[in-house]
Every structure is written in structure tokens, then in C-alpha cells.
């Protein structure tokens, strides 16, 4: 695991070699089963998970429904907020696929940060990026129409996890249309309608828990001139942009 090329946005990619090696030597390696509730919202917790392979969903309950908040993949941390704040878990974490991780105690994690100040700075940067992503989604809810929010989430997923395939970009994670609706902050039927429209326009291809983006530039383009709601309730036009480019990956041989 020492020589793995971690995704550029992940915590492990942020760390310098010695700090990364020190973190990966802590705790024990575990295998997390698909669908297993690794962390439960509201429970006390004193463990941090360093994801080595696989993908997990982060969700929380609001009112009478559970909403998907984020996706975490190889190189990311989960559980660190509860350990740092010494408060109950703020979300539930469930693997989408069999996932490998190193699990370490809260004491070990805090000691590690004390001994590696540069890692603590990188952790602050990672948490800042997560907050920025969450703030962007809140702005989207206030400013963009529902279809534009679905487009923006698809672009963000490709930029974070996507891998090139023969006809475009695979999202890199298996998500239901309900998951996409949760991330976009729209109703399920609205997300379904938006995805069907994108499919008819040949921008995306749809399958069971599977979305392929055929035309990433075309998906981005309407975001740049999306209709937005202004403060007085009228509809205006605004420029928008998502930063970042998809991380490189091997070509998928599937047709």
C-alpha cells in the first residue's frame, strides 16, 4: 500500500511520504462488508477508518428520511470528526462494495496528529474542501433549477471518482437514482425525469445503479448558463463553473 497512487483529492495523497507511511502503520487492517453499517449516526465512536480500497456512502437522517451526504473512496478518512470533536457520530457510513481499511483508535489518531503537525494542516485542508463542497450544494439548491443541480452533481462525481471508458466517463461508484437525487437535493421523480432527458439527449447512458457520462463537456455547458433564482424570485442567468478535472485511470474495455 505504500506505493499506491492515491486519488489526488484524498487525505493520503495530501500527505508527504513519511507522514503517510506513519499513518498506514497505525491500527489494524479490516475488511468491511457491502451493506455493513460501519458507523451509526448518533452512536459514540472512538475509531477512525483510513480507506485503502473500495467506496462507502455517508448518510444522515433528516425528518423521516435518510439522505446521502457524500461518497468516500480509497485514500479518504471516515470517523475523524467524532474523534476530534469527542461527540457522537454525525452520520452513518455503509460500504457500497467490499472495502479495505485501517482502523485506529481516537487516541492513536490524535497522537499521530500531534507528532505530525504537517498532517494536521493537511487534515484541516481536507475538511475545508468537504465544507466547501457542502456549501456549493447549498448554493445550488438556492440558485439552480433542479435539472441543473442533477447535471452539476454528475459532473462533480466524474471529477472526483470518474474513470474513462470507451464511450465517455463512468461515475466510478455504483449509485441509485435516489442517491443522485439526495446529492442534488431534489425529489426522486425529478431526478428520474432529468436523467431520462439527459439520456434522450445522448449526454448520459443509464443502467442498473450505473450511469455513464457520454458527453462531459455537454453536461457542463448548461451549468455555465443555468437559470438561477434571484432574491426577488425572478429568473436570471448566471455563469457557473466547477473546478477540477477527472483523475486519470485505465481505459475500460467494455463497449
Automatic annotation (TrEMBL):
The UniProt GO MF terms for this protein read: DNA binding; DNA-binding transcription factor activity
The cross-references to CDD domains, in alphabetical order and at most eight, read:
CAP_ED (cd00038)
Q: Which domain of life is it from?
A: Bacteria
Any keyword Nucleus? Answer: no
Which InterPro entries does this chain map to? cNMP-bd_dom (IPR000595), cNMP-bd_dom_sf (IPR018490), Env_Response_Regulators (IPR050397), HTH_CRP (IPR012318), RmlC-like_jellyroll (IPR014710), WH_DNA-bd_sf (IPR036390)
One Pfam family name is cNMP_binding
SMART domains, A to Z: cNMP
Q: What is this protein called?
A: Crp/Fnr family transcriptional regulator
Amino acid at each position: 500500500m505504500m506505493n499506491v497512487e492515491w486519488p489526488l483529492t484524498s487525505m493520503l495523497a495530501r500527505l508527504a511520504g513519511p507522514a503517510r507511511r506513519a499513518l498506514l502503520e497505525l491500527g489494524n487492517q479490516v475488511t468491511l462488508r457491502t451493506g455493513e453499517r460501519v458507523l451509526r449516526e448518533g452512536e459514540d465512536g472512538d475509531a477512525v477508518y483510513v480507506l485503502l480500497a473500495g467506496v462507502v456512502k455517508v448518510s444522515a437522517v433528516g425528518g423521516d428520511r435518510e439522505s446521502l451526504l457524500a461518497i468516500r473512496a480509497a485514500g479518504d478518512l471516515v470517523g475523524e470528526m467524532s474523534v476530534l470533536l469527542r461527540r457522537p457520530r454525525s452520520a452513518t457510513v455503509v460500504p457500497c462494495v467490499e472495502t479495505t481499511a485501517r482502523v485506529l483508535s481516537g487516541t492513536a489518531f490524535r497522537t499521530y496528529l500531534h507528532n505530525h503537525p504537517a498532517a494536521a494542516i493537511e487534515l484541516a485542508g481536507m475538511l475545508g474542501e468537504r465544507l466547501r463542497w457542502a456549501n456549493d450544494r447549498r448554493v445550488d439548491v438556492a440558485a439552480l433549477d433542479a435539472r441543473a443541480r442533477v447535471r452539476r452533481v454528475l459532473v462533480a462525481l466524474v471529477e472526483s471518482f470518474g474513470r474513462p471508458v470507451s464511450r465517455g466517463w463512468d461515475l466510478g461508484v455504483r449509485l441509485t437514482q435516489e442517491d443522485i437525487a439526495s446529492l442534488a437535493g431534489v425529489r426522486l421523480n425529478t431526478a428520474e425525469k432529468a436523467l431520462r432527458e439527459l439520456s434522450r439527449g445522448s449526454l448520459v447512458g443509464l443502467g442498473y445503479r450505473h450511469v455513464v457520462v457520454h458527453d462531459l463537456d455537454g453536461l457542463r455547458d448548461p451549468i455555465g448558463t443555468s437559470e438561477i433564482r434571484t432574491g426577488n424570485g425572478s429568473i436570471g442567468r448566471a455563469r457557473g463553473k466547477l473546478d477540477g478535472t477527472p483523475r486519470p485511470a485505465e481505459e475500460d474495455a467494455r463497449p
